[in-house]
Amino acid sequence: MSAGQPPFDSPEISRLTPVLGPGHTYSSVTDKISAIVLTRPTSLGWYIGFLLAFSVFGVLNIAIGWLIMKGVGIWGINIPIGWGFAIVNFVWWIGIGHAGTLISAILFLLNQKWRTSINRFAEAMTLFAVACAGIFPLIHTGRPWYAFWMFPYPSVMGIWPQFRSPLIWDVFAVSTYGTVSLLFWFVGLIPDLATLRDRSTTKAKQIIYGMLAMGWRGSARHWHRYQSAYLLLAGLATPLVLSVHTVVSFDFSIAIVPGWHTTIFPPYFVAGAIYSGFAMVITIAIPLRKAYGLEDFITMRHLENMAKVMLATGLIVAYGYFFEFFMSLYSGNKFDVFLVHQRLHGPYAPFYYALILCNILIPQLLWFQKMRTNVVVLFLMSIVVNVGMWLERFVIIVISLTRDFMPSAWGRYSPTIWDWATFIGTMGMFVMLIFLFVRVLPAISIAEMRELVTETSEEHK
Amino acid sequence: MAQIFHRSTNFISRFSLFSAVFLAGLGLVGVLGLARSPYSTNQNVSRAQPVQFSHKHHVGDDGLDCRYCHTSVETSAVAGIPPTKTCMNCHSVLYADAPYLEPIRESYRTNQSIQWVKVHRLPDFVYFNHSIHINKGVGCSTCHGSINQMPLVFQASPLLMEWCLDCHRNPERALRATKDDVFDMNWKAPDNQAELGKQLAAERKIRSTAELTSCSTCHR
Fold first, then answer.
1. Which domains does chain A show, CATH number per domain?
2. Best CA proximity match to B210, nearest among B173, B174, B165, B160
């Protein structure tokens, strides 16, 4: 960027602001992105961050090891609260994993150019979030080595999984989502892997990237097939964005527990998932562009657009909260009315108020462009929203289960140190995987950025 | 720039894609087959006993009734392993000095039970009851095979859950008309078993398949 141009982070962000900084050519884009992986020395900051995340990942391994030795009794769960942190965290992580596919598939089909520089790491983030999410139901079974029983295969037991249970639908929804996301991510990576192969200087890197590139030579026929495959995968992935969290919401709404048994759950869970997913993309994008000087690629326009998506989905979530209460009161069902009372005045009421603060009140600041274009505010806001979305799942699960129909069956829930160790451990695993990803794969799609070079230069002629 | 990969890589990559799918399928078939094989079910494996008691001799040749030794089979969950006194009913006279039977006599003298080796082991979480099966007309040989031809008893059935359910889903196939049929080791299904079984099931108020295959029917 030359010195004479206005600072790119100025608040005058409009639809005309390019999604790529000016002055970039094919080779400058390729150089800048591939250098992060190939030529730039690994910074001390990377090592420190990675080691920190790795040690937290170690905590996760200890927590899971202890769980396997002792069983789920080390957690705070007990009847009536069979679903504690494990399910709260599962829903939280799987929700976070929604932004990647939304950005890569739906925005791709809608021809939104601003998705280009964020789709790669958003997809990677999705995969890592789904991996973190998958751990929880697996270890919550208590005997994870029998988890394969949830898949339909001709077992010696002569029975199939209970297909009428939404928990089995979950297995299909999440595993399909994970598979399609992985394929989509990998197919998108192939041309970039070939670029890395061609630019590698050592034999080992050439072989590893070469094998992953699967013989990509960039011929017209390759590109033709690549684009068909990418479009097909985008079409396949699009319904999954809506279906996965719909199915997750069925885990609750199919049950007749007060506060769960509502038809508004699927849409408001999907909106909540996209809400938290975009928050997590912002949480990652802001440090990433700072650390590697990618402000030209991940511009203010990207951040502002993501903030707008957050605002919109946050309002849908607020609508969901409102109608949850309204329908409970309107129905006059005494258990539903009582649950509203419990949320507002029960032992877990502070969590509910914190949820409203984090998910509804604070994000209203995003109405102001000054806030949407302030990197620090956006970063803090994304953390607040993620905390809020976690609280939402906590409130849904814990308040409903502790205040069931029969007062004699009421209980209280508090997590143990092992609940926390597992939860924080998955965060360590997530951050560790992000660090590894940024170091060994191009965090921004080189091939798609090259396309943008042509398009933006035409726009500004 | 020199090529990174040799020409043959093209073939190797295609071949490995094919064989990955093929091997995964083969592996699955192998695991599912192994789980059903005698290696994991112990089907058809004869067990050595403290005294090599021959069911073939006692049942097949001498014609003893099952209930002579397994006295509680009609009234209890377990068929019952006979006490040494049951053996001595005959063997205090017959073959009274045979060295082969010394462990029996020793058990009788010292009042210490013979440690027979269990052949049909069900998991602890399965509540199997012999009496209900006998009283509804399921014969011994349906599950235990031709005991009258076994010098040493082996497990004739796999005892897998799919094997239990196979019968609980279609109980009429195994129902026998009379008590004598139930204890008949050579029983063969009559030609009209399909109708007869249905009729017997109705008469004896055998529960519906949904109830017979409900989890808590066997796992309580």
1. 26-150+163-459 (1.20.1630.10)
2. B165
Is B166 within 8 Å of A158 when comparing Cβ atoms? yes
Spatial distance between the Cα atoms of B30 and B39, rounded to a whole number of angstroms: 13
Identify the pLDDT of residue B1.
56
Q: What is the pLDDT along chain A (461 residues), one digit of tens a residue?
A: 344 444 444 445 555 566 777 778 888 888 888 888 888 888 899 999 999 999 999 999 999 999 999 999 999 999 889 999 999 999 999 999 988 888 888 888 888 888 888 889 999 999 999 999 999 999 999 899 999 999 999 999 999 999 999 999 999 999 999 999 999 999 999 999 999 999 998 999 999 999 999 889 999 999 999 999 999 999 989 898 889 999 999 999 999 999 999 999 999 999 999 999 999 999 999 999 999 888 888 988 899 999 999 999 999 999 999 999 999 999 999 999 999 999 999 999 999 999 999 999 999 999 999 999 999 999 999 999 999 999 999 999 999 999 989 999 899 999 999 999 999 999 999 999 999 999 999 999 998 888 888 777 665 54
**Test the B interface: residue of A143, A149, A156 with most B CBs within 10 Å:** A156
Chain A residues inside the 8 Å CB shell of B213: 159
| DSSP-assigned states of every residue in A129-155 | HHHHHHHHHHHHTS-GGGGGGGS----
Residues in a beta bridge with A78? A81
Torsion of CA A119, A124, A127, A133, to 10 degrees: -100
Residues whose CB falls within 8 Å of the CB of residue B204, separated by 6 or more in sequence, listed in order: B136, B137, B175
Please list every residue in chain A whose beta carbon sits closer than 8 Å to the beta carbon of residue B35. Answer: 156
**Which residues of chain A does B25 touch, with a Cβ-Cβ cutoff of 8 Å?**
none
**Tokens 């052949």 correspond to what residue?**
B119
Residues of A in Cβ contact (< 8 Å) with B13 = 214-215
CB-nearest partner of B160 from A156, A207, A215: A156
Q: How far is B35 from chain A (nearest CA, A)?
A: 7
A357 vs A395: CA distance, rounded Å:
14
Report whether B39 contacts B160 (CB < 8 A).
no
Which residues of chain B make contact with A197, given a CB cutoff of 8 A?
Answer: 4
Nearest chain A residue (CA) to B34: A156
- Identify which of B4, B9, B164 has the shortest CB distance to residue A206: B4
| CB pair distance less than 8 Å for B162 and A153 | no
Q: Work out the minimum CA distance from B43 to partner chain A, whole angstroms.
A: 14
CA A314 to CA A304: how far, in whole Å?
Answer: 15
Q: Answer for the pair A446, A33: CB distance below 8 angstroms, yes or no.
A: yes
- Nearest-CA residue of chain B relative to A155? B32
Q: Considering only the beta carbons, identify the residue of A153, A154, A210 that sits closest to B5.
A: A210
Residue type, A224: H
Q: Which amino acid is at A123?
A: E
Contact A157 B160 (CB under 8 A): yes
List pLDDT tens digits, range B111-145. Answer: 999 999 999 999 999 999 999 999 999 999 999 99
Nearest CA in chain A to B40: A156
DSSP character string of B53-116:
--HIIIIIIT---HHHH-TTTTTSSS--PPPHHHHHHHHTTTTTT-GGGHHHHHHHHHT----P
Residues with Cβ within 8 Å of A200's Cβ and at least 6 positions away in sequence, in order, are A38, A206, A209
pLDDT tens by residue, A366-381: 999 999 999 999 999 9
Residues of chain B neighbouring A207 (CB-CB closer than 8 A): 4-5
